Amino acid sequence: MKDIEKGKLKLNTEDDTRTLGLRIAEAAEPGDVVALIGDLGTGKTALTRYIAEGLGVREQISSPTFTIVKEYKSGRMPLYHFDVYRLESGEELLDTGAEDMLDGDGLCVIEWADKTADVLPGDSLAICLEYGESEGERIAEIL
Amino acid sequence: MKDGKFLTLGIETSCDETAASVVADGRFVMSNVISSQIDIHTNYGGVVPEIASRKHLERINDVMDKALSDAGVSAGEIDLIGVTYGPGLVGALLIGVAAAKTMAFALDIPLVGVNHMHGHIAANYPEHHELEPPFMALVVSGGHTEIVNVTDYNKCEKIGSTRDDAAGEAFDKVARVIGLGYPGGPKIDKAAKSGDRDAVHFKRVYLEDGSYDFSFSGLKTQALNYLNSERQAGREIKVNDVAASFQEAVVEVIADKAVSAALEFNRDKIVMAGGVASNSRLRELMEEKASKHGISIIKPSPVMCTDNAAMIASSAYYAHLAGESSGFDLDAVPGLEF
Fold it and tell me: What ipTM goes with this model?
């Protein structure tokens, strides 16, 4: 994804997460993939929610853990929100019908993307999220 | 038809259960076969879709045969086929939908596609023969947390739902955090029985005044923060206390909101449904809070709380009575809304 600076970013508050989400949404083009990597509670879904906000998605973004993927069509381009935690391989991701979405008309945001890294496009924007030093703080490493 | 009874064959493959059931007149369960895949999934810490859909395919014919033989009926005596077409995992749903269409075509009988969530509510009809709409329904499962105003058998309106994680998902995730493993719901329920629910304070998230929506994603973060601070302080973590405290925070908010909804819409019954409806503390607290307002709580037995096909057959029966039917172009809809 162009226009997104690589490197480490300190997210001190939820507002910083929102700023990052909005910036990703602004830079996104159809067919782009954002690969989110990080433990439980590091803010993957929160970041996705702000990307959705930036795209102009009006629906509520709820967790896709149960159904693997949820689609939102009300923004300036479709948003495909994946949670692949329960998958064991990239092949399984393709089995869910993800191939059309990965190379499609919208933005794919994939939580736990390290589980299916083998089938994600090489130019995916990978973001590793980690806990910071204080309770609300997170570190985002953009690769 | 058999002995003057209208027979529905229900088929359910939306997630990790391959299930088939014969229900007479929408209310009498003649057979209820569930081929649970829980043992397979325990190895992976969750439902694995690829395995789920392959297993559904391997088991669907045997499960349907067993449903017929357990009921003591032949395929030719079935009057209607009901099948879950969403929401769920697409590969899993497709197996059930294909089997249902084939049966309906071969037997030349009507077919009704059923919303899995409507099915969960309908699970109460075979268990409580006197139950009729209207009522307030609380659907709580791994993928859903919804308060639904049910005005008729086929008419319901969602008035509240989760804004992030479903209740069952919160149980799964926190169970993972505190090392209890999968499936999180039953594990936490059991651990909580010998834990102190006031030991750890988890914030109750009620959102805006008058909202029937839920938010549970903050709970896993709270659990993580608590564990970290305890570990840093070198204190021993009492898993049962954390489980009991977390569970209390979830079920208290759910029970409060469900009872408020019933009061606002003037309903004298709350019908529980979905896997989390078998949580023992949720049942207890619902009874306690509802009885203060003269509201009765109706709940299915644990087997009818989980994914099963009897609930799908019952829901299909009432849809059929209302004149609904599906064509052979019925397709799986993974993201089907309420």
Answer: 0.82
